[in-house]
């Protein structure tokens, strides 16, 4: 229960939101947006030169607070693992892997067994923190990594400010999602629509060219 309450409150996220809104709105814009991970062309990412993939958990790979992959995403996750091997990991704001709530790594270990991918141990909730834990885990510069998540003020901002390619997804389900997260999500969507219509672009990335990069059948989306 304490971990869930901690997951609902993200002081770093609140502070980051203010800074993004006032100083650098482009950090909130993903390089690529897809309905879910099944639309991502993992082989194209690998061929472009990316070395690894970092996933958010809730509403990206699983339903909120659930430890199993969303039924329709298993094939895509397996395809990702075939392309990147062991260079696929989870960086979540849930208790698993976060030293504050999972100091012994018990929840991280259980989640690794359930999902079949490693959980990065870290000390700060996204978007706070640098990419040191990622560099240590993957052994490469953060610019060669892909951040995939459903939240713009956490996953996308964290990825963009640390130089990763960012791919955002639609939430898998609103069932079980904390009320405050749902409200913030609506705010994110409204701001993104306004900023994109004004011509705002995400931060440049050396391995990214257009918003349709790395999408399967982009004409359908």
UniProtKB/TrEMBL annotation:
Specify the domain of life of the species encoding this protein.
Eukaryota
Molecular function as annotated in GO: phosphatase activity; phosphatidylglycerophosphatase activity
Q: Name one GO cellular component term.
A: cytoplasm
Concerning InterPro entries, the annotation shows: HAD-like_sf (IPR036412), HAD-SF_hydro_IIIA (IPR006549), HAD_sf (IPR023214), PGP_Pase (IPR027706), PGPP1/Gep4 (IPR010021)
Name the Gene3D superfamilies for this protein: HAD superfamily/HAD-like (3.40.50.1000)
| Pfam families per the UniProt record, alphabetical | PGP_phosphatase (PF09419)
Q: What's the protein name? A: Phosphatidylglycerophosphatase
- List the source organism: Selaginella moellendorffii (Spikemoss)
């Amino acid at each position: 229960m304490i971990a869930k309450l901690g997951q609902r409150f993200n002081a770093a996220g609140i502070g980051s939101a203010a800074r993004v809104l006032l100083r650098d709105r482009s950090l909130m814009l993903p390089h690529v947006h897809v309905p879910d991970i099944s639309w991502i062309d993992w082989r194209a990412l690998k061929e472009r030169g990316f070395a690894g993939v970092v996933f958010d958990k809730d509403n990206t790979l699983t339903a909120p607070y659930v430890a199993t992959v969303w039924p329709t995403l298993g094939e895509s996750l397996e395809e990702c693992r075939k392309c990147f091997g062991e260079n696929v990991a989870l960086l979540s704001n849930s208790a698993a892997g976060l030293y504050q709530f999972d100091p012994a790594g018990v929840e991280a270990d259980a989640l690794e067994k359930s999902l079949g991918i490693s959980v990065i141990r870290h000390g700060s909730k996204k978007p706070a923190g640098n990419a040191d834990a990622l560099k240590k885990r993957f052994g490469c510069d953060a610019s060669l990594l892909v951040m995939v998540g459903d939240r713009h003020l956490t996953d996308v901002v964290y990825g963009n400010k640390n130089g990763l390619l960012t791919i955002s997804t639609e939430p898998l389900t609103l069932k079980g999602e904390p009320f405050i997260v749902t409200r913030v999500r609506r705010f994110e969507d409204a701001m993104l629509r306004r900023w994109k219509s004004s011509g705002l672009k995400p931060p440049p990335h050396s391995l990214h060219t257009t918003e349709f990069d790395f999408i399967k059948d982009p004409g359908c989306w």
